[in-house]
Amino acid sequence: MKLKSYTGDEVRSLRRKLNLNQSEFWSPFQTTQSGGSRYESGREIPAPVQVLLNIAFGTDAKATAIVNELREFGNAKRKSKPASGEPK
């Protein structure tokens, strides 16, 4: 799946449109104010944060597709390991 790659300028614009300070905006992404400031200033935004930005600010269909893909990935991992007490 192709994700949108957010730039610092785009994220700063989104934050300002929401009328949030950096702490308020970045907190749900488990990012500190100083980390968010660095991203907004042009430092590369890490892939996990990009995924969360796509879920938060993309379309509902995009968010659903991302979550479904992650669930499939998680379910595939679980299926490959036998449950405790089951023969290998």
TrEMBL record:
Domain of life (superkingdom): Bacteria
Q: Domain RsaL-like HTH, which positions?
A: 12-55
Query: Which region is the signal sequence?
Result: none
The name this protein goes by in its record = XRE family transcriptional regulator
Q: Which organism is it from?
A: Aromatoleum diolicum
Phylogenetic classification of the source organism: Bacteria, Pseudomonadati, Pseudomonadota, Betaproteobacteria, Rhodocyclales
